[in-house]
Amino acid sequence: MAPPRPSAAEAYVKLVLAVGQHDADYVDAFYGPPEWRREAEAHPRPLREIRAAAEALIATVAAQPVGGDEIERLRQAYMQRQLQSMVARIDLLSGRRMSFDEESQALYDAVAPVYGAAHFQRILDRLETAVPGAGPLAERVEAFRQRFVIPRDRLDAVFAAAIDECRRRTAQHVALPAGESFVVEYVTGKSWSGYNWYQGGFHSLIQVNTDLPVFVDRAVDLACHEGYPGHHVYNALLEKHLVRDRGWPEFSVYPLFSPQSLIAEGTANFGIEVAFPGAERTAFERERLYPLAGLDGATAESYAEVRDLLQQLGYAGNEAARGFLDGTLSREDAEAWLVRYALMAPERAAQRVRFIEQYRGYVINYNLGQDLVREYIEKRGGTADRPQQRWQELAQLISSPRLPSGLR
Ligand SMILES: [Zn+2]
Questions:
Q1: pTM of this prediction?
Q2: Ligand 1 midpoint to CA 196 (Å)
Q3: Mind listing the pLDDT tens digit for each residue in 353-408?
Q4: Is residue 8 within 8 Å of 248, Cβ to Cβ?
Q5: Contact at 8 Å (CB) between 182 and 227?
Q6: Using CA atoms, how far apart are residues 247 and 244, in angstroms rounded to an integer?
């Protein structure tokens, strides 16, 4: 009698873990059977062998009959597309060159629109008015922002308050798994500013990078994005609904360079405005976080105006990445572009280019992801004037395996 054949889902998880032996950033989370990871570590497989197995598995999954339920169809399409992105990541690791757009299509199932200098200049012109004075705009904005830095010894209190509020707001609308929890750690020497490491069992480790000064708006950003209703909730809901309730093991692994990341980053960013509609964010920051940070709440409105304009410059980061990765911008040029069009301080621009070097086209997942998620949720009735519906659509999206191309 032959042993039972491993399911396609199990084979998929093992292939992700196998790629992880060649690419330290690839496995963002894994909480399936620990012996699967030990097996991947003990018997590393060559990339070309993993690639061939992934191609074969795509064909196997495509040939499987699928039930009539939408979620069953999503599951099948999702696993095929995740595997295709794995093949593309293996090709990149093996030295294949792709353009920025080819890579983002292959890995994230989406291509970011191109914006030229004129697009960003219009937003910069508005910032010229919002932050008047002499000298280059980037320096003025940086000097203005320096007044809103959270002192290092107050960081933890400010973040704790922000996380409590984000969790409170999320729990009013989303059924959080019982016992979900997280810990926050402060780290240095990273190319990112925050990271959620999902541990399984509804538990997360949230790391905050303190290499550079942390501005007061990062508290709500980070608490929503990494925590509630962002990555922590996203991973916990996938574990609850797909891994545990449905018994679908493929969701116990999260390959970072895959379409899953556009959904993860897009919902984490859009989740900020879902949790704090309209003026609620600034009101909360002014009344609760500014005092904890030792900052003057009377300045919260003017900072929020600048913050919103700076956020509209987000796509400038994509253009820096596009130029740097396509070879039309040198490192210095890319940093200078970020200083000029994203108004980053030079050391922040340098950190961002290191991020681009490490994570490449991943940068599109934040802004394009947010825009695609917003469009999708609004199209389904979750518009700004219907906050309940917004929450419902968001909760459903982060509990199901939908692909970026399926958001259109
Ligand atoms: Zn994120």
A1: 0.95
A2: 7
A3: 999 999 999 999 999 999 999 999 999 999 999 999 999 999 999 999 999 999 98
A4: no
A5: yes
A6: 5
